[in-house]
Every structure is written in C-alpha cells, then in structure tokens.
Fold this sequence. Notes:
Number of helices of chain B: 18
Structural class of chain A: alpha/beta
Largest sheet of chain A: 6 strands, mixed
Largest interface: A-B, 34 and 22 residues
Structural class of chain B: alpha/beta
Distance between the termini of chain A: 22 Å
Shape of chain A: globular
Number of helices of chain A: 7
Strand content of chain B: 5-15%
Low-confidence stretches of chain B: 1-9, 15-24
Helix content of chain B: 55-70%
Shape of chain B: elongated
Helix content of chain A: 25-40%
Strand content of chain A: 25-35%
Radius of gyration of chain B: 28 Å
CATH superfamily of the largest domain in chain B: MetI-like
Oligomer: heterodimer
Low-confidence stretches of chain A: none
CATH architecture of chain A: 3-Layer(aba) Sandwich
CATH topology of chain A: Rossmann fold
Mean pLDDT of chain B: 88
CATH architecture of the largest domain in chain B: Orthogonal Bundle
CATH class of chain A: Alpha Beta
Strand order of the largest sheet of chain A: 6-7-8-3-9-10
Mean pLDDT of chain A: 91
CATH superfamily of chain A: P-loop containing nucleotide triphosphate hydrolases
Number of domains of chain A: 1
Amino acid sequence: MSxxxxxxxxxxxxxxxxxxxxxxxxxTHGGIVALMGPSGSGKTTILRVIAGLERFDRGAIDVExxxxxxxxxxxxxxxxxLRRKVGLVFQFHHLFDHLSxxxxxxxxxxxxxxxxxxxxxxxxxxxxxxxxVEHRASALPRELxxxxxxxxxxARALAVDPPLLMMDEPTASLDPSRRNELGELLARLAxxxxxxxxxxxxxxxARRWATTILRMDGGVVV
Amino acid sequence: MxxxxxxxxxxxxxCALLGVRAVAQQSDLRWAGDLEGGAPFVEADPNDPNKLTGxxxxxxxxxxxxxxxxxHFQFVPYGSIDQAIERGTAEIGLSGMEDTxxxxxxxxxxxxxxxxxxxxxxxxxxxxxxxxxxxxxGRRVGTLGGTMAYEILLxxxxxxxxxxxxxxxxxxxxxxxxxGRIDGVLLDNVLAERRRKTMAGITIQPQAVATSHYVGxxxxxxxxxxxxxxxxxxxAMRDGTLETIFRKWGVWNGDQRALYDNLIAxxxxxxxxxxxxDAQIGVALSRREATLRYVPSLIKxxxxxxxxxxxxxxxxxxxxxxxxxxRVYGRxxxxxxxxxxxxxxxxxxxxxxxxxxxxxxxxxxKLPAFLAALAGLALNYAAxxxxxxRGALEAVPGGQLEAARTLGLTERQVLRLVRGPxxxxxxxxxxxxxxxxxxxxxxxxxxxxxxxxTKQTQIFATNLGSWVIPGTLCAAxxxxxxxxxxxxxxxxxxxxxxxxx
Lengths: 222, 501
C-alpha cells in the first residue's frame, strides 16, 4: 500500500524550546492512525504543521505528492493544494459562531469548490444525517452540546472531502459511551479513500479503534 | 476618608469661598466682557497679557470710579454675556453690546454710550457694483452670528434674496471675503475699520445700512444700579470724559456728539434705525410669535445636522474599515502610518482639525463650508471607528480563522465570510454610540459658518433673549434623531441572534 502521508525528520524550535526534534513517520492509505504520547510531546503541533497552520525549521512533509519543506514559507498555490488533501477537526471545534450548523458546513464547498448552494446544502444534510445530527441543522454553534458540535465540525471537514482527515484530541470532552459512538463513526469513515489521523492520550480508545498506533515523546516518534 | 467627611469639608470650603465673595461684592464692580472681541473694545495688553486695555475697559473704570468701587473683569464669551449677567456671574456686561429692542425688553440696559453704523465691506474690485445689500442678490454675505447685523442679513434674505452666512468671530468673515468665499461683510463700523487697517483689499461702502449703539447690560433686578450708572455716563458725556476715551481709541466721530446731546437733553433714542426703511430689527416679539417664526428654521437646521452626521458617519465607517484592515493585515510601514493617523486624529481637538481644514488649507484647497465640515468630522471619526473595528477584528477567536484556512478559504475570504461578519456584530453597539456622539459633535461645525441645529438654537435664543424655549426644542429634536438609531441597532442585534437558516 502506498503512503498517503510521509513525515520526514521534522524539526521545530520556538525560542529556546524544542517542540519537534526529528519526527519521522509514514501513514498508509486507509485505517485509523492514533498518535499517542504525553502532553507536550508535540502531537498537536505535528497535526498543525501538516495542516499548514505552522511553519517548521527543517525536514519535509509529503501528502499525496504535495510537498512542504522546512524553513520555507509555503506559497498560496501549495497551501491550496494541501488543503484539498488534508482536513483538521480541532479539539475545541472552532465552529463559525455566526453561522448555523448547516451554513458552517456549506461555507467551504460553495466558496472554495464552487459547488452551487442547493447541491452543497443537500450534501451537508446528508453528512449531518450520517453523523446523527440532522435535527440540529439550523442551530447556532452556541446552542449545540459538545458532542453535537464535534459532529458538526467533522461534517464541516468532510464536506470538502479530504483524503486525510486529522482530529486533535477527539475524545477529550466525551464520556465513555460517547467515545464508543465516535469510534464506530470513525471506523465507518475510514475507508481506502479516507485515512484518519488522530491525536489522543486515551489508551483504551486507541487500542480498541486504531489500526495503527504511533507514540511520540520529546518531539520524536518512538 | 469617608464620603460624609469629604462632604463636610467641601461645604466648609464652599462657605469660605462664598464668604470671600460676599466681602468682595461690596467693593468690586464685576463686569463681563469677551477678550476675543479684541481692541478697541477689550483685549489683553500686548505688552502685559495680564493687563486689559480697550475703551470698554476704560468705561468700566469710569463707572466703577463713579460708584466708588474697584472694577473686576470677568471673561464671558460674547454670545453668553446676557445669560451670565442674568445669573449673576457679573453685574454689568460691557463688550460692544448692541442696543436692540429685545435686549431693552429683556434686560436693564444703560443709556447708549457709543453710536455705530452697520456698514457693508466688499472687495476693492467690487466696490463699484456692490454698494448696498440690494446689489447682493444671490450672493453670500457674512457677519458675526447672534448680532444685529445677522438679523439685518436674515431680513435681507427675504427682501433682497441674498444669503446670510454666520461666523463665530469677526476676523474670518473678512478673510473669507478676500478668499472669495463670500461677497460682502456686514458689521459695525468699529469692527470694519479695525479690519480694513490690517487687511489690504477691503472697501467699506460709505452708506450705513443701519445705525445703533453700544450699551451696558444689567439684570432687570439691578435697575436701581443701572439708574446710577446712567447718571455717571451722562456726566461723562457732559464733561467730555467719554469723548477723551473714544478719541484715544480713534473711534470718535460726529455721531457721538449728536447722540450725547440727545441723551443729555433726556430725549428718547430709538434702539435701531434702518436706513431708508421703516422696518425694525429684533423687534421684541412675543414668545409665541418668535417660536412660530423660528420653528421652520430649527427644522431646517436639524436637517443639516442629520444629513451632515449621516454622510460623515458613512465615510467614517468606510475609512475606519480600511484603516482597521490595514492595521491588522498590513505590513509594518503601513501599520505605523495608520497608527500615526489614528493617534493624531484622536489626540487633537476636532475643533482644531475643522479650523485647519477650512481656514488653514484655504490657500491650497478652498473647500465650501459644508464639505470642509463633512471632511473634518469624517476624518476625525474614521480614527475612532477604526479602533472599534480593529478591536472587533481582533476579538474574533483565532481558532475560527484557522478552521476557515484549513477548509481552503483564502485570507480575503476568511475576512469577508468569517472574521468581518462577526467583527461587525461586535462593533455594532460602540458604533451606534459613536453615531449618537457624532450627531451632537456636528454642532462644532458652526465655527465653519454651517448653520446646524445648535447654532440655529443659539441664534433663536439670542433673538428671543431666553434659552428656555429654544433649548427645549433643540433637545427634543436631537432626541428625535438619536432615539430611532438606538432602536435600529437593537433590532439588528436581535436579528443577528436568530439562526440564519
């Protein structure tokens, strides 16, 4: 199986703190990859770097042929390509406060991909239904529960159909029964066409649902 | 310190002050005047700014001497002298106060001590064609607001179709005359002569438009004091003391002799005489008549206020958005320049900015008054608005911006679709607040001869001799304009709280 993500020798320093110290790993197509490790080990930073939200000093990242190099500012075209490949669901969701759940989901398809509104809306409703929150379509983010907000955030990321879906600490705010529901959901989403890379420090969750577990410590994958 | 104790101390201090004041009252003659009026009336001595000179100063000394008291000067702006006398800030107002029927009816005025002529000043080149107000049909004619000359010009609007322009001082009418912003200036001969001496290119037409006098102004309750002062003035007319004073200031002429002869013979002297006309100026109208006469002009002035405020706000909002975006997204030099602009506009008085735009830049761009007022208010408020938007833009959580970026939105789209709309909701309340403030700040533009609501109220009050009715109407009109704004803002906020689908 070919690699969807190849991370090679990532280095990142902020001031005199070393955040990443040569992290290297590969993710193959399909499945759920759990990135584990103690707080401060660099899990979230790796996800942010792969999503193009942060620069890194040295090393390289390759997402299905889109290549980010250390020490360089990625240009707009490269970032555009990268973001067709990678989606990120934040730990705190970061839904757009002024838009309903449905409009949160249709924003990117209509404005980035140029999908006509009726089609985008139909697809958004499908996603909400698949995630079990179709009844919350017209709710504003502040009216959603934590679990509902997470599902809307997943739907928002899936709406632009990225082959690599990353999630930062998806289980952090969920109770045990909700965690299993999430695991089942992710297992359904992870197909040959979609790979899930998530960071967590929930051992039970990772052992039960992940197809691959990577462990980070001190800015490297061990 | 407890607040009760502080209160006690405060009242003790007040008592002490009042005590001193009471003693002072017996030997001091407090007289009010406007230093900005300048020579030959009242001005700070150029050699010793703590000393006063001018014929009004000498007349105050003359009166105080006659009353065996010491003159004590109290600075009061020209337009507020009547009110200040009424409330007891000073006992007598002496600052080239005009002898109008309204003033005679509302206050205790002394006998006139100087006769003046309202004269028309024009540019030398126009001396042949603009001889009287009738020649100035369709032209702009300036004067000092709240004066008899302004009343005459308002009458001229009806009779001759000219346009009256009101100034807050007596220097800028003449400088605007030379700049071509107006085509004539009507003011009394003392002010006109003074200006003609310092500015080249002004011709004063020999035929007087009207004649009247300067008087001292006292509160009606001080009528007995006024009677003693009248006798002192009559004595000074008889023994030539007044003539000496006016000769010293170079304003003595034959008109004074005639006036004094009449007054010494105790003949009645009409307040104002309009040349070649029986029409009267500032005839003491009943409050009802005056109100009916002024309400239409107040409504018109409120319209000026509203249009000016709305346009200024629209420009300020647009500029504010651009400045804020530049400060949040721009490169360092742009950010620095914009920060400099904001600090300059916020850190200096808007009044000064208006003066610079209208008068200071007149040699480069000669903006009409309304445009200068609009530009001044808009440029000033743009600085404040930009700070609101910058704060609002920065208040939108960064996580949402990152989420938008990971979805593939460009920076421009992030601003337009995610950051901007949320910032606008945050900015709405402070913006509404600023608009209401602007509505009232717009009254400052009267210094640029724009007659808006507050200025019109002041004109009304001067002519009526009271602030009660004009002030009440003015306040009501401001409220009528500002209250719907608050309601509109609340409705918008409500609408934005509701879901969008």
